[in-house]
Amino acid sequence: MGGSGLVAILFTDLVGSTDLATRHGDAAADVLRRDHFSHLREALASTGGTEIKTIGDSLMASFAGASDALAGAVAMQRAVERHNRRIRDSRLEMRVGVSVGDASYEDGDWFGTPVVEASHLCALIWRRQAV
């Protein structure tokens, strides 16, 4: 069943996941990825987000409004920072993109301008530089 409406879309991307696999091996990198998604899902649950899908090391989620999506993004970023304080030799970096607008919902997935924008914004974010 389909539909359409105003939605906030969030995309994440785990930066350097190929490098993680090279440094730690595929099995260890897979454990890190699963742990990472687990923390992102906890952040989604605490901020009212809905997981739409994962693709490789990326996650797509929807929210009812912009403020919820931004709260979700902040909660996810904080989860990554907690991971980095706990496990210093396997630091993670994550990009996040958020967009709000009218979209179509079909077969458990969202389609439309906010999906494309959130994905592109996530892809445009450069690695954070140490100051």
Description:
- This protein is α+β, with helices and mostly antiparallel strands and 131 residues long.
- Helix content is 48%, strand content 32%.
- The chain contains four helices and five strands; from the N terminus they run βααββαββα.
- It has helices at 17-24, 26-47, 66-86, 113-124, and strands spanning 3-15, 50-55, 58-63, 93-106, 109-111.
- Strands 2-3-1-4-5 form a five-stranded antiparallel β-sheet.
- A hairpin with a 2-residue loop joins strand 2 (50-55) and strand 3.
- Helix 1 (17-24) packs across helix 2 and helix 2 packs antiparallel against helix 3 (66-86).
- The longest helix has 22 residues, at 26-47.
- It is elongated, with a radius of gyration of 15 Å.
- The N and C termini lie far apart (49 Å).
- The model has no long low-confidence stretch (mean pLDDT 90).
Summarize this structure briefly.
The protein has helices spanning 17-24, 26-47, 66-86, 113-124, and strands at residues 3-15, 50-55, 58-63, 93-106, 109-111. With 131 residues, it is α+β, with helices and mostly antiparallel strands.
Structural class: alpha+beta
Care to count the β-strands?
A: 5
N to C succession of SSEs: EHHEEHEEH
Q: Give the CA-CA distance, first to last residue.
A: 49 Å
Q: Please indicate the percent range of residues in DSSP E strands (runs of 2 or more).
A: 25-35%
Q: Radius of gyration over alpha carbons?
A: 15 Å
Strand order of the largest sheet: 2-3-1-4-5
Mean pLDDT, rounded to whole units?
90
